[in-house]
Design a protein that fits this description.
The longest helix has 22 residues. This protein has two domains: about 140 residues, NAD(P)-binding Rossmann-like Domain (Rossmann fold); about 190 residues, 2-Layer Sandwich (Dihydrodipicolinate Reductase, domain 2), CATH 3.30.360.10. The strands form three sheets. It has a six-stranded parallel β-sheet, sandwiched between helices. It has a six-stranded mixed β-sheet with strand order 10-9-11-14-13-12. By secondary structure, it is α/β, with parallel strands linked by helices. Bound molecules: NADP nicotinamide-adenine-dinucleotide phosphate (NAP).
Length: about 350
């Protein structure tokens, strides 16, 4: 489908870990751009960002900034989305939201284009980007589900600090240097910046991402459960344990999948190798499997260590790795924007 018009695009949270990737991807995107508006809080307003041959000045995000905007990419936290998305929608923008603010609302499509791109057309002004850990999981589950019928998933994550934003990355580097030099460290961002109790991330693994719910799961774990069901099928049983590890970028997941039909592992490997957005790296003889450091900077979902369970012919295990800032956030949002502009362009 050819593009028929140019688009005014705003990036909210343009100075953040995800926002910077969005700005970078926007420059090479297929979307014909008219104006690009970069928005942040008052703190970064006035900063300049190179965009192609131009220098764009970051501005404070206020409702009036959305006048004339066609697409607004939001990545500035749930509170900002709650406050500014209604203002942007009222002014005619379609908002693609990276936060959890609207993901579970019934009339908001929750989209991973490789899985449910058809839902984009149902939007009423807001399209939600799922949680980073959910996105890479469902990209790998979808081709398996279509053929074997996924019945249950147990996932343990090994999540990079970039998933907690630019401050968490800086804290990890600072703490690691301090520890190596024998200096004591006072953690102040992780596991949750807004909670008083902090834990060191350097040389550690923290089994808490986001706050705990009364059922003992963290909100990050519940996002993986609820979002996977919304995107794929309510009947799939999902259990998650989310762990922050001192990897700078790239989330890894150990996943146990039980299917309705018995599993032929070679057929699964072929299915995954042919699936959109998936790269199979699975050659254990040569110690080749997905690694966070290799995945960082790539838009794909990497799958390896694919093996059948020793006791159950309907169950298999695999290792899924992806760049949480790209496929887990900015790249997925940009894919949605590209689908949207093609659809809406065709209608106008
Ligand atoms: N990191 C990931 O892997 C990932 C993946 C999926 C979704 N997300 C979600 O994306 C959002 C951003 O994450 P991040 O990791 O990019 O965070 P981050 O690095 O901390 O960046 C936050 C961005 O939001 C801006 N901001 C903060 N308060 C604002 C306000 N009141 N008005 C306007 N802009 C404001 C910041 O601007 P200043 O420079 O002015 O502070 C900055 O640009 C979060 O909701 C997060 O849950 C993150």
């Amino acid at each position: 489908m050819a593009y028929t018009r140019k688009w005014n695009v705003a990036v909210v949270g343009a100075t953040g870990a995800v926002g910077q990737q969005m700005v970078r991807l926007l420059q090479s995107s297929a979307i014909p751009l008219a104006n690009v508006v970069l928005l942040s809080s008052q703190r970064s307003a006035g900063a300049t960002v190179a965009f192609g041959d131009a220098e764009l000045v970051v501005q404070e995000a206020t409702p009036d900034q959305f006048t004339g905007i066609d697409i607004a990419l939001f990545s500035a936290g749930g509170g900002v989305s709650k406050q500014l998305i209604p203002e942007a929608v009222q002014r005619g923008a379609v908002c693609i939201d990276n936060t959890s603010a609207y993901r579970m609302e019934r009339d908001v499509p929750l989209v991973v284009p490789e899985v449910n791109a058809h839902r984009i057309a149902d939007h009423r002004g807001i399209i939600a980007n799922p949680n980073c850990s959910t996105i890479q999981l469902v990209v790998a589950l979808k081709p398996i589900h279509d053929v074997l019928g996924v019945r249950s998933v147990v996932v343990s994550t090994y999540q990079a600090v970039s998933g907690a934003g630019a401050r968490a990355v800086a804290e990890t580097v600072r703490q690691t240097q301090a520890e190596l030099e024998g200096r004591s460290v006072t953690p102040d961002v992780l596991p949750v910046a807004s909670l008083p109790i902090k834990h060191p991330i350097a040389f550690n693994a923290i089994p808490q991402i986001d706050v705990f719910s009364s059922n003992g799961f963290t909100l990050e774990e519940l996002k993986m459960v609820n979002e996977t069901k919304k995107i794929m099928e309510e009947d799939i049983a999902v259990a998650a344990t989310c762990v922050r590890v001192p990897v700078l970028n790239g989330h890894s997941e150990s996943v146990r999948i039980t299917c309705a039909r018995p599993i032929d592992i070679d057929a699964v490997r072929t299915l995954l190798a042919q699936a959109p957005g998936v790269v199979v790296v699975d050659d254990v003889q040569n110690q080749r499997y997905p690694l966070a450091r290799d995945a960082s900077g790539c838009p794909d979902v990497f799958v390896g260590r694919i093996r059948r369970d020793l006791d159950d012919a309907h169950t298999m295990h695999m290792w899924i790795v992806s760049d949480n800032l790209l496929k887990g956030a900015a790249f997925n949002a940009m894919q949605i924007a590209e689908h949207l502009t093609k659809q809406e362009g065709a209608r106008s």
